Amino acid sequence: MTRHTNVFIQQRREQTSQVHGERPALVVPLSWAATTATVPFANLGDALSPVIVSALSGLPVMHHHFDARTERLTCVGSIGHQVKHGTIHLWGTGARARPLLKPPSQHWNRLVQTHYCVHALRGPLSAQLFQQQGLDIPDVYGDPVWFLPAIVPPAPEKKYELGIIVHLSELNGGTDRSTVNERFLRYHIPDALASQVRIITTITRPSFDALEEKLHEITACKRIASTSLHGLVLAETYRIPCVYFRTQGRGVAFPHLKDETERIDLRMRDFYRGIGSETLFVYGQPRPRPTNWEHLIQAIDTHWIPIHWSAESFLERFPLPLAFNPLIEQLGDRTRFQSLQL
What we know:
The protein has eight helices and 14 strands. With about 350 residues, the protein is an alpha/beta fold.
């Protein structure tokens, strides 16, 4: 396989181009969990996929459904086991099925009419799932969200001592105004700390401006505790001290990522193993019990260690020519993102 694959860049034949004799625009066909008429709000991690692909390629993207019979790319998200039909290029994609459960066919079966071109996956657990289906997987891992600081600068100032990024499953709805389930007392914030501890959801309106606003809300925090995978990935790549806010156990722990008896979200296990980590910094707090926020802040200050991961090999596996190098450059013009339908 060559480093760059241009065959799946499509030509978008718009009426204006045909009338005026202009060359049709090039566009990258991309599958991601996009908004719909019935799901009008975007999930942060999913919505970052078209932004990152457009930024790295310098091209607009066009949404293709998970079951489209086309040649297309997948990027951010645990969607590798959901896409099917046609030819699918995977770069940084994860899978949510359990690869170690036997038999694996109970969770995902490769369709014979689907051709997979795996450039790099999120981590070794996703790789194992595909390998069990007879696919050759390169030993290169990573999450494309890692390159976001070169695309979207952080907030200009820190406003909050601690940001708590909650998973979708912990909310009482699916809009950008949804709040945490009131039964989860661990998220209760006393009035005295209301201006210092910020609850942040990953739901956003489907526009780049709203997405940027959400990223600024996150990067305005001095520390992050998260039950969301991409809450942690964002914190790590923007160099914000962070911890996995686990719902089991009490206080600080450093479980081994290869220990299957440990209660660790598979997506986090996959990502952190993929970048070479052996243990994961967690802070356990059961949902029915109030959190000692001062103790959590002190724990992050004491135990967080920045990740030192070299992303060059992962970036080299991006299947299109790079419009800019996020490891050494900052993206300039971002106006094309305004037209993205997330």
